[in-house]
User: Fold these one by one.
Assistant:
Number 1:
Amino acid sequence: MRYAIRSLRRAPALAVVAIVSLALGIAANVTVYSMVREFVFADISAYRLDRLVRVDAGLTYDQYRQFRQAGVFQDLAFDTGFHDAYWQTGDHAEIAWQMDTSPNFFEVLGMGPAIGRAYSQADEGRPAAVVSYGFWTRRLHSDPGVVGRRLVLNGRVYTIAAVLPRDYRSVMGFGVSPEIYAPARVDSKQRCRPIGRLRDGVSRSQARVEWTAVAERLGGLEFARRASVLKPLGGFEAHAASEGDPRLFFIFFVMLLGVAGALTLIACSNVAGLLLARGAGRQRELAIRRALGAGRWQIARLVVAEAVLLVTCGSAAALAVDSNLRGWLSHVPWPNAYGVPIEFHFESDRALLLYALATAFAAMLVCSLFPALSRPLNFVGLQVALSVLLLTVGALFARSFLHVARTGPGFDAAHTMIAAVHPAPGQRNYDPVWRERLVRAVMQVPGVVGVTSTDTLPLVGEMPMATVRRADGDTSPVLDVYSLGEGEHYFSTLGIRLLRGRDFELADGERKPVPAIINRTLARRLFGDRDPIGARLIREKQDTLEIVGVAADTKLRTLGEGDMPAIYTPDYNGQLLLRVAGDPALWIAPLRSALGAVDDTSALDIRPLSDALEGAMFPMRIASTVVGCLSGLGLVLSLVGLYASVSFAVRRRTREMGIRAALGATRGRILVTALRDGLKIVMAGTALGLIAATAAIRPLVDLLPAGVTAWDPLMFASVGGLVLLTAAAATLAPARRAAAVDPSVALREE
């Protein structure tokens, strides 16, 4: 090892390039693993998670109680979902995010708090609360006397019993972190989502058989079919079997891990190529050592020692880079329109350390074994192929992000504010007198040019759905559509074009049949080219609606979705949308003052609607940025490896080039000869990479936004051309050195 240190000190450029390559490659791999583990495989905080299952059905409290008494599981808990709560604190009110659970919720999870004692089944009926670590630090200012402190939520007084650990991961997944947990106030018909802990020695399939039998006894065959799906609560199986958006997350992050692995392989191959090129200049030294009696193992040990030293230094630098990257990721805010708390914990632990060690060990093997190959160009083709693959995936996500950014949501988010007014408990948020006072107050604020309301903000995830059909006969198709409630002047306030008819009016809330506005996609599917104004629809087999307008299509659930059918009906509530002139951030304080003067007991949440737009774009922005950086880094490392390999090949052919020059070959001819071998392998690697890319992006098709095709010939041609041009530039410098060789000097050196 001392010899390896002395040897690399005599070649500082090689050492620096090798260590930097390994540091970037290994750091990217470990950081991406941290991201994959946190975003996808970050299992919920629970004891023996493999023994927990989620009943994939909503049950009433009566049904839950009967199932629990049946004893299928060791114990059965539930949660009723995640909702905002009116938190009265001192002389004002705020919004907190609360999850209601069964009293035995934390007992079934097997999780203990960081401070205090979590409520349990023995505390049933007691108004206790457990708060998250983030809520304790951010909103309770790390109060050391937090246990026993009172919380007034939705008019009910709770006593804080415990604070959860800082790295607690909720059953919601994807970083969603409820701030407050409280025992649910249930009635017989309230619906809940059960979580069961399997009895010792009982598998999930065995528990499902017992559960199905109980379900059939309680509700019949149809109920048993719907209520007998038991899913693992965590682990690879749970994520691989997921559906909808969770499955897309799973596919993307598995792909991302593969991209990071390919990048690490490129970095290791580069170091191997550098060591091989270095070995070409040490042939005389090694020959002398063999002549002095050094065995093959002794000589190999010298080469391996250098590789081990470089990998060790590169791994140490990689851990430092990874630590900084994870620290930055932990503080990246995830924008969203409702201010939902989202927390990620990119922390160092034993699993991360073991993964880093395994990556370093694999890098050491590659860097030690590849120099044993006689021809470095044999694996340059692999590097080029991997680089083409990474660039193709990166270009695909970059195109997707640019497409989404150019398309836009179809409404004016840049000049719209959200002013959600949560009334005090006991006051209805659809009281028309109260709402009218709010509307008048905000319209008096200078710069506010329009006011409406909405029951569901756009671009925040799931949308309410309903079935609709024409009311003029049974032959009308029944369509699943987005069903949204909007206030007066909704479309003019948000800048959505009305293609036919009129906007909503305040009086529409009392009219029968209920006025409705449909979007262009729904109009085409139900009426074709006919004018739908005045036609009637049946919603959910009972509501009769009369169409008064047709609006342009907008993005409702995500920015990447296609044009989805939607129907809008009047709904007047306290979640106001305001159109303002200029930067919306300038109106937060004036609006808060105006609304507070009307009702100082309400909790206010005022933010730009652009937060919803940013939240919708954030996943695609992160995806394109991460994949793009990995792809660009892969190209740079491949070029370094190509340069080293061509330099090695040229050095080995110095005598040949000298003889060619002595026999009359021109510099141009020698330059072409030196370039030819390198470019042949680059072209072969590019072709192989493009073939691999067509196969690799096939599973990613579902991730792409509507309007983006994965099979764009221009994208493949651009990637191939970029790699060929940059590879030609990388091989040019060593090829020019070969063309400039002096025949007498070359022959004398040999």
Number 2:
Amino acid sequence: MCALFGIHDYSNSLNSRQKEMILSVLSQECEVRGTDATGIAYIKNGKLQIYKRPISASYMRYNIPHKTKIIMGHTRMTTQGSEKNNCNNHPFSGNVKNNAFALAHNGILRNDRELRQSMNLPKTNIETGSYIAVQIIEKPYAKKQIRKRGTFPSCEKEQIHKSKDCQIPVKYRRNRVFDNEYRRFHI
């Protein structure tokens, strides 16, 4: 199974080199959960940046801008879709009402084809089941459909940590994936 890792530099006290070293250590420690691909997402000058490659974390080199406060990462063990096709690797990007977001998932969604068909989601070149979560979040009326059908985890309004660069859930409830009330996840 895959692994997730990240950094939140609350006080912006780490320089770029320190962040890169921490990311390198974190991602290499996560290799035990996946060596097929590695990726990160962060905000640079107000825009979402995603850097991912079909390589093990041991070979990944990071170049993080100094003012970046939050970085999320993913190491992948391929279960669906070839890691050589880089669009299959995490994190994935999405957009809701001109708000870009990144999503990385640890696990397998076994009902992705059924969800795609029942929710009339468009076909895509991305072959992983996890990408359907991005498509569902992007769908304007997904919240109602998700709760009605109960086919994908949802959550209620949760405590949100707000800062200049981000809005992320800080309190997770059991079996919850994303915050439907805000319908965005900025890193």
